Amino acid sequence: MEEIEGNGIKIYPLPDCDSDEDEDYKEQVRQLKEAVPFAVCGANTLLEVKGKRVRGRLYPWGVVEVENPDHCDFIKLRTMLM
């Protein structure tokens, strides 16, 4: 984050939760705030991985699955935007 701020890049600040918000929602917002900046990859290709069709990118070293939270933060970004 220091490098982002040092270069004058503006990031949308997630608003704080109201005190009467649901605890699950507060936890979700906390996790989203901790994940910023998001590491996101995109793909419009469906690949078969372990017998399952997934949206991803194929590299010589393996597959990056767009909707796998271990591979990228696409789901977190989508959650924040929705």
From TrEMBL:
Organism of origin: Harpegnathos saltator (Jerdon's jumping ant)
Coiled-coil region list: none
Gene3D superfamilies: P-loop containing nucleotide triphosphate hydrolases (3.40.50.300)
GO molecular function, a single term: GTP binding
UniProt name for this protein: Septin-1
Pfam families, sorted: Septin (PF00735)
Domain annotation Septin-type G: ranges: 1-82
Alphabetical list of InterPro entries matching this protein: G_SEPTIN_dom (IPR030379), P-loop_NTPase (IPR027417)
